[in-house]
Amino acid sequence: MDRGTICYTTVVGGLGHDQGTRTVLVVGRTQLGMSTGETIVLPISHTEPAWPYPLSWPVPTGLLPQPSWVLVSRPRTALVSRLRDAVATLDGEQMDEITTALRQLIEEPVAPRRGIVAGDDC
Predict the structure, then answer these.
(1) Which residues contact 106 (CB under 8 A, 6 or more apart)?
(2) CATH number of domain containing 51
(3) How far, rounded to the nearest angstrom, does the alpha carbon of residue 87 sit from its chain's CA centroid?
(4) DSSP 74
(5) HSE, side-chain direction, 13 A CA sphere, residue 38
(6) pLDDT at 122 over 60
(7) What is the pLDDT of residue 102?
(8) Does residue 119 surpass a pLDDT of 60?
(9) Which of 88, 105, 110, 117 could cross-link with 6 by S-S, CB 3.0 to 4.6 Å?
């Protein structure tokens, strides 16, 4: 499955809602995952989470049969061999929003450096 694909996977040994078959968004680079047999996915919930963007991202209406949210704050590894039944694909702009949300969760905000003016090449 390619990056940006919404599909199903079976989670073995998970806890609570993390076990069994569930819908996920593939965010890992497929080529890298093929060498390890794993990729990175984000779970998708049909229950609106209490936390907004960047912790969750609403799936655009019409892509899935019911209202859904990508749980950006809960990345998981999934076996590539367990990904199946692609149901939708996010476009580049939508994946950029997801990537931006992930970056907000793991990167420190970059503060402007003092004494440097935008466009100053000196």
Answers:
(1) none
(2) 2.30.30.110
(3) 15
(4) -
(5) 7
(6) no
(7) 95
(8) no
(9) 88
How many domains would you assign to the chain?
1
Task: Identify the three-state secondary structure at position 115.
Answer: coil
pLDDT digits (tens, 9 = 90+) for 15-70: 555 567 899 999 998 777 778 899 999 999 999 999 999 999 999 999 999 999 99
Nearest-angstrom CA–CA distance, 122 and 120: 6
DSSP category for residue 37: T
Residue 1 makes CB contacts below 8 A (sequence gap 6+) with 7, 26, 30, 39, 80, 83, 86
Q: Could you identify the residue written with the tokens 């919930």?
A: 45
Encoded tokens for 39: 């990729």
How much is the pTM? 0.82
Stated length of the chain: 122
Amino acid at 114: R
